[in-house]
């Protein structure tokens, strides 16, 4: 008899964004004429930058001849890309990294999910609430979450509420935890931590031997000065933090898949005996065993965004999305809605009007205005009473959506 990983049976039947897609499809089937505007899943709409496409074309041609053909690459990523990451994304911030501390991969979603492979089942996990559902669902799969309670929380997960009342700043846990997921700029609320607020987390993690899993997938959207782009800008963070970055939203790679994870050699975990172990070789072992590397063609494309031309094209893309974010924010605020985010992130977190829940306002916008959003409660209990809008559409559609909502 084959036994399954019964943790899967504890999960809600569908992943949040699959559930939304299902509801939108059902509505579309009944109303094929509806001009639906998608502001739900954070998927980019602009094509890949020209320099990226050219680099990928060149790489495709290299695959066509024996002399330049590439088979398996290094599981950790090609050094041509890793060197650029270290120089442009970290040295520029005053952060030194060694080549073998950067692991190129196929998405921050995969890496934030897979990181659980190197962590004991006995860790107590803390998450900010609302939260990117991957952190929770993968810990359910890994047997660390316990049971789903009627209040929407998992019994073994520690929730750190982020609401308008606390300015979306999570408090340090009051109970003992081992691992904390932090995503800043935040998905879904679009809010950030300042350097001094993040420093409190790093100091806490050092003092308590806690691991911080820092998801910086949206760092390229930061516009304000005092907001850290990397957790390693904070002194001591290398001892306690793993950082995840992604090219998906930054440079339009949601379909082509490329990201990287930094695991500093200084970052330690512990055996039950209390002996410390560097996380870096564990992640390397995990990746070399389960992952054969991001495709060469894709990594060449990612490398191209570090050229002068590539940087400019990427910045233009980000400016385009952030202009949409501004339009969403200001239109909704002028119409009397309470909104957060949208200044350092492509997400706007909207308080639903009195009398609505996240899902009922989601349904209203879908059925009456033909706009797809994401119900806040899908990101966790503290997301109830909010919806999330993304700025990843075209400007015309963004303006049209705002006219529909505010009219
Ligand atoms: C989101 O909408 O939250 C993201 O697109 C999901 C993801 O990056 O996987």
Secondary-structure map with pairings?
Blueprint: H1 16-30, E1 37-38, H2 50-62, H3 79-90, E2 102-105, H4 108-114, E3 125-129, H5 133-141, E4 157-161, E5 179-183, H6 195-208, E6 211-215, E7 241-246, H7 248-251, E8 259-262, E9 268-270, E10 276-278, H8 279-290, H9 296-304, H10 308-334, E11 339-341, E12 347-351, H11 358-369, E13 371-372, E14 374-375, E15 386-390, H12 395-406
Parallel strand pairs: 1-13, 3-4, 3-5, 5-6, 6-7
Antiparallel strand pairs: 2-8, 7-8, 9-10, 11-12, 12-15, 14-15
Helix pairs in contact: 2-9, 3-9, 4-5, 10-12
Bound molecules: D-malate.
Quickly give the structural class: alpha/beta
Q: What is the residue-averaged pLDDT?
A: 97
Tally of structural domains: 2
Report the bound ligands by name, code or SMILES. D-malate
Query: Nearest-angstrom radius of gyration?
Result: 21 Å
Widest β-sheet, arrangement of strands: 2-8-7-6-5-3-4
Ends: how far apart?
60 Å
Low-pLDDT ranges: none
Helix content: 25-40%
CATH classification, class level of the largest domain:
Alpha Beta
For the report, how would you describe the main beta sheet?
A: 7 strands, mixed
CATH homologous superfamily grouping of the largest domain? Type I PLP-dependent aspartate aminotransferase-like (Major domain)
Instruction: Kindly identify the CATH topology of the largest domain.
Output: Aspartate Aminotransferase, domain 2
Q: What is the percentage of strand-forming residues?
A: 5-15%
CATH architecture identity of the largest domain:
3-Layer(aba) Sandwich
DSSP summary, beta strand count = 15
What's the quaternary structure here?
single chain
Alpha plus pi helix count? 12
Strand/helix succession: HEHHEHEHEEHEEHEEEHHHEEHEEEH
